[in-house]
Amino acid sequence: MNYPIIDLKKEYASIKPDIDKAITSVISETAFVGGKFVEEFEDEIKNFTGASYAIGLNSGTDALYLSLWAAGIGPGDEVITTPFTFFATAEVIAHIGATPVFIDIDPDTFNIDASQIEQAITKNTKAILPVHLYGYAANMTEIISIAQSYNLFVLEDACQAIGAYHDSAHVGLLGNAGTLSFYPSKNLGAYGDGGMVITNDEKLAREIRRLRNHGQTKKYFPEKIGVSSRLDGIQAAILSAKLKHLPEWTAKRIQTATWYDELLNNQDGIKLPAYQITDRKNHVYHQYTLRVLDGMRDKLQKHLENHRIGTMIYYPQNLHQTKAFETVNFVKHTTSESEKASLEVLSLPMHPFLERSDVENIVGIINDCLN
Ligand SMILES: *Cc1c(COP(=O)(O)O)cnc(C)c1O
C-alpha cells in the first residue's frame, strides 16, 4: 500500500495528451507571459464561476495582496480574519501595512465564526477576510450582512475552494472580490505558481489589472507604482485543459468524502467534520479533515506514515502563534477553538483518483491504531 495525500502523477497520466498539447501550443505561439492563453483561461473562469471579471496573477498570495491594495487598504486599517488558515492570508494584511485582527473559528466548519465579527469591529476596521477553508464556504450570509451594516470591504480567500457555492453563488462573488490559487496541490492546480482574482466590481478589476503589470494600462507609460505579477501562458494553457475535468474531479472528491464519512462513522477517538451541505451549499473537499481526540493525533499520524499513508496537519499553529508574527502588529480576540483545532486536525488522502477499496484500506489502518 502507498497512499500519498494527493496524487498528481495519476492525474497527469489520466490527461497526458491534453497537457502535452497545451504546453506545445504555447511554445509554438511563444505566448509566454499574459497573451492569448491567459485571456482564454480568464474567460473560462468567468464562465465557470459567473464572475464579470477574472484577472490572472502569479499566485493566490498576490491575488490577496493586490485585492487589498486595489481596495485602498493600508496603514492604520484593521482587517478581521481567521488565525486558522495558510500563512498568506494574514501575511498580505501585514504586507500592505494594515493590522490583522484574529477572531475564533466555528468548531464545526473550521471557518471564521461570523457571530464573533461584530464585537471585533472598531473605528479602524476596513475589511473582513474570510477563508473558505478546506473547500467549504464560510458563513457568507452573516458576513455580508455585517459588512453592509458597517460598510466594510469583503475579500474572500477562496484559494482552497474553486467550485464551492454558498447560496448558489460561486465563492469569491458574495463579497467584493475573491481569490483563487492554482498552486499545484490545489483542486485546480497548475504546473507551477498561479493565482487569480474574480470579482463583479469593474473598478476594482481595472485597478488590479493595472497593478499586476507595473501600473501600466499602456505599455511603457506607467501611471503608478505597481508590481510584476502575471500568469504565464504555459500555466494558463495547462489550467484550461484541466478546468474541463474539474466538475468530474470535484464529484469524485465528494464521493470519496462520503466513503470516509460512512466507513469512519462508528470509529471511537475521532470526530468527523459536521458540515451543513444543502442543494445551495456544497463542499469541494480540498481536504478531508477530521479531529483526532484524546491527544492521539500525532500517534495516529505516525501509524499512518508507517503504513505509507500520507496525511497532513493543516495547520499546526495558529497564525498569531507563529514566529513571523512575534514582531508584527496584530490584534487577537478569543481564539480557543482555533488553537484547539491546531492540536486535533488531521487531513487524510483526498484526490479524484481514490477508489472505495483504497478508502477501505486507509480506514482499516486507522481502525488498527485507534481500537
Ligand atoms: C494556497 C493558499 C493561499 C496562497 O496561494 P499561493 O498560490 O500558494 O500563493 C492563500 N490562502 C489559502 C487559504 C491557501 O490555501
From TrEMBL:
<keyword id="KW-0032">Aminotransferase</keyword>
<feature type="modified residue" description="N6-(pyridoxal phosphate)lysine">
    <location>
        <position position="186"/>
    </location>
</feature>
<protein>
    <submittedName>
        <fullName>DegT/DnrJ/EryC1/StrS family aminotransferase</fullName>
    </submittedName>
</protein>
<dbReference type="GO" id="GO:0008483">
    <property type="term" value="F:transaminase activity"/>
</dbReference>
<dbReference type="InterPro" id="IPR015424">
    <property type="entry name" value="PyrdxlP-dep_Trfase"/>
</dbReference>
<dbReference type="GO" id="GO:0000271">
    <property type="term" value="P:polysaccharide biosynthetic process"/>
</dbReference>
<dbReference type="InterPro" id="IPR000653">
    <property type="entry name" value="DegT/StrS_aminotransferase"/>
</dbReference>
<dbReference type="Pfam" id="PF01041">
    <property type="entry name" value="DegT_DnrJ_EryC1"/>
</dbReference>
<dbReference type="InterPro" id="IPR015422">
    <property type="entry name" value="PyrdxlP-dep_Trfase_small"/>
</dbReference>
<keyword id="KW-0663">Pyridoxal phosphate</keyword>
<dbReference type="InterPro" id="IPR015421">
    <property type="entry name" value="PyrdxlP-dep_Trfase_major"/>
</dbReference>
<keyword id="KW-0808">Transferase</keyword>
<comment type="similarity">
    <text>Belongs to the DegT/DnrJ/EryC1 family.</text>
</comment>
<dbReference type="GO" id="GO:0030170">
    <property type="term" value="F:pyridoxal phosphate binding"/>
</dbReference>
<feature type="active site" description="Proton acceptor">
    <location>
        <position position="186"/>
    </location>
</feature>
